[in-house]
Structure formats: C-alpha cells, structure tokens
C-alpha cells in the first residue's frame, strides 16, 4: 500500500512540474478564422534568460505565480499588428535576440484573436481594448515594484499605436516606445489621442518603411527614421506578379531592419534632412550639433542619443540599406575636382578593397552629377559593406548615354572621407575613360591649395 502511495505522490509532483514548465506558444490561426472574424483575447507570454525559448503564460490577476518574473529588471513588451492570415509573425525570434543582448523580461503580447479578421477597420477598433488589457497588467506590475521608466514597448504596425495608447493611459511615464512602421490606414489624419505621438513615453523612436501604402507618413516620435526614404525597400518586389509579398514586403522590412541592430549585425547612422533626395545628394551630412557622438544610429541603440534628441525639434532622419541582411551600409563623403575644359554630367561607381581583397561597392546613380573645372563636386557614396583598411580604390564613370561619343573625366583630385573615422584618403591626377574601371592606391590627404 505504501508503495502505491509513494508512486501516486511522485506522479502528482511530476504532473505539477510538467504543468509549471509547459511552454506556451503564440496563437496559430487560419485564413478561415479571418473570414469568420475573431474577438479579442490577449495572451502575455513571458521569456527570460532562465528559458528564452519557452513562453510562460502570465496570469492577468496573480503575478506571484511567476517567480521568474523579476520586477527589478527592465521589461520589454513586443506588440504585433494586423494578422489577416492568422499565422504567427515570422519574426517571433525577436524575444531570444533581445535576451541574447540584455538580461531582462521580454513579454510577447499575443492578441492574434482579434488581429485575425478580414475586416481591418474592426481590428483597428480592437486596438483600444488590447491597450486597456496591457495597461491593467502594467499597473499590476507597478503594484509589485516595477518602474514605468524601465518599460520599453516595441510595437509593429498596429502594435505601434497600441503601445502609444498604453503610454498615454500611463501619462507618458513609460521609458521608451519603439514604433516599427506604425500603421497608416485608420490612423492618418487622426489627433494625438488616437495614434502614437511623442508624449506617450519618455522617449519615442519610430521607423518608417512603407509610407506610401500600409505605413504612417508623418513623424510620430522624438526621432523618426525613414529607411530608403520610407518607400520601396531594396529587394522587395516591384510588381504585383510577386503575389502578397508585393503588398507586405516594404511594411515587414521594418522588423528585419530593427532585428539587425538588436543582434549587432548593423550600426547605421541616420542624418536629419528635409528630404531623401537631398540626403542622397550629400546635402545633409553635418552632425556637429550632436558633438562627439555624431548623428544617431538607427535602431536598438538610439536610446544613447535620448538627451540630445529631446532638445531637438522634430525632424526626419534618413538612411539607406542593402537589399538583404546585413542591411547596413557604410557612408563616405566623396569630393571630386576635375580639370576638363567643359563640364561633364554622369554617374560614378566606386569600389573599395581591403586586405581580404573583397570589394565594397557604391554606385552613385540617383541622378546625374555635374562636374565642372576646378569646382569641387560633393557626393555621398554608400558602400554595401565596411572596409577597415582601404588598400585599393576602383572608379568608373558613365554618362548613361549610348548615342554619343565616349567621354573622359580628368580628375585633379578625389577625396574619400569615411563619415565615422573622419580620416580622408586622396588621389591626384586620375583619368577616367567612360565605362572603364581605373584602380589606384589612395593615400592620406595632404593640405593643399585645392
């Protein structure tokens, strides 16, 4: 009899242990759910370094059930957006990547029941109810010792506005809100109380990647980044023949760009400018007003510029990316002075080579550049990768015109200045024949009359 009692006790303890360690996953629905429509249900899944792959389903009423939820640590909430297919987002690994970076609490807000609905505008109405749910939970966290200033909310699309609603309900005391391509439809033209805005947290940073379709066009935060001008992300389909990817690729790129900054794959400087066109023309490369820190880096680490940005007026910040990860580019200011008697118009391609002899390429072709005798033409060259020690440089000049004689560009001096290192490299007296690569070794620039 005693043996059976011991065995029953063992099975009971084991069952409780298994229940306590059950991994809860993000809700997986189908297009059928979207067709029928779903009502709001909010699940909060906790991830910590104790177990960064197993989600713990948090109670909305009793936090004592979750001893691993340490209120003395910062907490990051991840809030997704509209889910017309019902499937989980492809970027759910963001929780692990953040935990690889920092020891904190990461909470995935799963409101797939509610977000899955063919009626987008009904889902927009649901965002207020989701925000109420999260707000009540955060107030419970406060009662257990959590600080609002240690909370960071990362909202994707509709999730960006949900984060804003939560922040507003908490009187703007949240530490930080990051909006990743905040939704435009249903929010464009709305007042501050009905969308994300800078008063919703102590610091609000926003990325725009699809302002001409699914994203919000105007600035929403203390700093607003416009990747590739905020439209037409490199590598995304250009025609509807690509199917659903044509509609959502630009919008979804926001998360992929942000993830690169979480993992440390990329560090991309962004520059305040009146337009993307002026940025590409190299008219907005001065960051002296940020002091030694230089212009802000887009992404996870922009919080380091918080104090400086809070003193700045609301501006748009621009940067360009590669078509795939790692997305970051390396920027150089290129100054070209020619001694041709007549002016030249054309495009420049520059390649840099380091010790590994792998090339980094920048093609300056957003518009034809004008080159005039003894006049310095300033260009922005954005290379697809960084080269630590430049050993060789290759340049190619093209007019883009087939039905005219080949032109030459007689360069008196070319100067390449890395916008991070600030150590210019020069070369003098270079003859570029149209559509022919010329390779040379650059040298540290010397002071001259030029």
Explained architecture:
Residues 1-20 have low confidence and may be disordered. Helix 5 (120-143) crosses helix 6. The protein has two domains: 22-319, Rossmann fold, CATH 3.40.50.1820; 330-444, PLAT/LH2 domain (Lipoxygenase-1, Sandwich), CATH 2.60.60. It has 450 residues and is α/β, with parallel strands linked by helices. It contains nine helices and 19 strands.
Structure summary:
The chain has 450 residues and is of the alpha/beta class. It has helices spanning 2-20, 31-36, 94-101, 112-115, 120-143, 158-169, 245-263, 276-280, 306-310; strands at 43-48, 51-57, 75-79, 105-110, 151-156, 176-180, 204-208, 223-227, 271-272, 316-319, 330-338, 344-353, 359-371, 377-383, 392-398, 408-418, 425-433, 438-440, 443-444.
Keywords for this entry:
about 450 residues; Rossmann fold; 9 helices; single chain; alpha/beta; five-stranded antiparallel β-sheet; disordered N terminus; Lipoxygenase-1
CATH class of the largest domain: Alpha Beta
Helix content: 10-25%
Low-confidence stretches: 1-20
Estimate the strand proportion: 25-35%
Across the major sheet, the strand order is 2-1-4-3-5-6-7-8-10-9
Q: Mean pLDDT across all residues, rounded?
A: 93
Shape by Cα distribution? elongated
Second CATH tier, the architecture of the largest domain: 3-Layer(aba) Sandwich
Euclidean distance between termini CA atoms: 100 Å
Write the layout of secondary structure elements.
Elements: H1 2-20, H2 31-36, E1 43-48, E2 51-57, E3 75-79, H3 94-101, E4 105-110, H4 112-115, H5 120-143, E5 151-156, H6 158-169, E6 176-180, E7 204-208, E8 223-227, H7 245-263, E9 271-272, H8 276-280, H9 306-310, E10 316-319, E11 330-338, E12 344-353, E13 359-371, E14 377-383, E15 392-398, E16 408-418, E17 425-433, E18 438-440, E19 443-444
